[in-house]
Amino acid sequence: MNNKKLLLQDRLEKKEQGFNISGLQSVKLKEYNALYDPNMRHFFESKHNQNLLYRTGQIDSHGRVIDYEKNKSKLHILEREFKEAERVEEKRQQEEREMRVRAHALLII
User: Fold this and answer.
1) Tens-digit pLDDT profile for residues 37-78
2) Quick one: which of 1, 48, 54, 100 has the fewest CB in 10 Å?
3) 56-92 b/e with 16+ CB inside 10 Å = b?
4) DSSP string of 91-106, one letter each residue
5) Contact criterion met (CB below 8 Å) for 53 and 44
6) Is 66 within 8 Å of 59 (Cβ atoms)?
7) What is the pTM of this model?
């Protein structure tokens, strides 16, 4: 009986030595997006979920999925335009404050 346990243990150790998972680290799985999964269609067609997806910018007003990878350059341009508009607005507000300070100084004199 003890001999059988040693044989079984030896056989299991050989199996473990032959098992190698290092190759799995190099395998890149395709990114999963539930919005493209046909099995999830019923879930995403509900009015509540459609409103949520629209508010969070994941679909457009017609219910089509917005692909950020395809529209990355457009988003970059929009972000730059928003930053430029903010910079122009800050400069305008700064000039307005300076004019008020000058006008206030003239009233005091």
Assistant:
1) 999 999 999 999 999 999 988 898 888 888 877 878 888 888
2) 1
3) eeebeeeeeeeeeeeeeeeeeeeeeeeeeeeeeeeee
4) HHHHHHHHHHHHHHHH
5) yes
6) yes
7) 0.45
